[in-house]
Structures are given as structure tokens and as C-alpha cells.
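Example record for the data management plan.
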Amino acid sequence: MRKLLLVWLSCLLMLAGCAGLGGRDPLHVALAGVDSLPGEGLEMRMAVKLRVQNPNDEPVDYNGVALTLELRGLDFASGVSDVQGMVPRFGETVLVVPVTVSAYAMARQVYSFATGDRSKVNFVARGKLSGSGFGGMRFESKGEFDLPAALAGSAAPK
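Corresponding structural encoding:
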């Protein structure tokens, strides 16, 4: 009987502990900039700057970041960094993640641009800040930007 009571109490304590972990709001992540890096062969390399905002009352420690980028619904670039740091409570920081774009991904984007709508480009940035929590904190940022009229108009379909 004691063992059964001990098992039930252990289960209740674990459930209460897990319930306390879910109270965090998601991080807000936005693309803050892109700089070029030297590439090798047919690949292109870029340093993607991410502005990470923490709307929580506790700081978020991280010890690595992974990032994937989609343009126009197609996989475009990916990268990882072993950067370490902390996003302060109700604060923000800028992370730099080097990403690689393959020649194949560039060719797909050129084809998509030539055969699709040229006025707007939508993007999705997905990633994970690794930390001491259960698998880290995942994030997603979506957006869209208009291309300059001269660029969009010069390649308009006929």
C-alpha cells in the first residue's frame, strides 16, 4: 500500500512540475539584416542577423542556434552556430547565423521568379535556440516584401 501511495505521489509531483514549464510566451524573432560572406564553389554564404525578443519575466539562456529559410515557398538556406548567450527578461538581442545557399536552391529560386509572381517575395524563417530546457525554444518568423517596380516590371510575363 505504501508503494502504491508513493508511486501516485511521484506521478502527481511530476505532473505539477511539467505544468509549471508551459507558462512561457514564445520568443519573437525577426530578420534584422543579411550580409554576404565568402562562399566556396557554387554555394553562396550569408550572415543572417536575427533580432530575438523575450516577452517573458525570466531570461532565456541559449548555447546554439539552428536556422532554415524559405523564399517563395521553397527551401532556400540553412545554417547553424554554436553562439552562446542570454536574451534578458523583457529584453532583446541580435544573433548572427551563417547560412549556406546551394547552387540548386539558387536555380530553383531563379526558375520560380521567372515563372511566378514577381511583385512580392514571401519568406519564412524557422529555427531553434538550444538551451538547458527540453529541446530549446523553437521560433518561426514570416513576412513578405515588395520588389522594386523596375525589377518586377522588367521581368513581367508577356
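Summary line stored alongside the record: Helices lie at 2-21, 103-115, 149-154.
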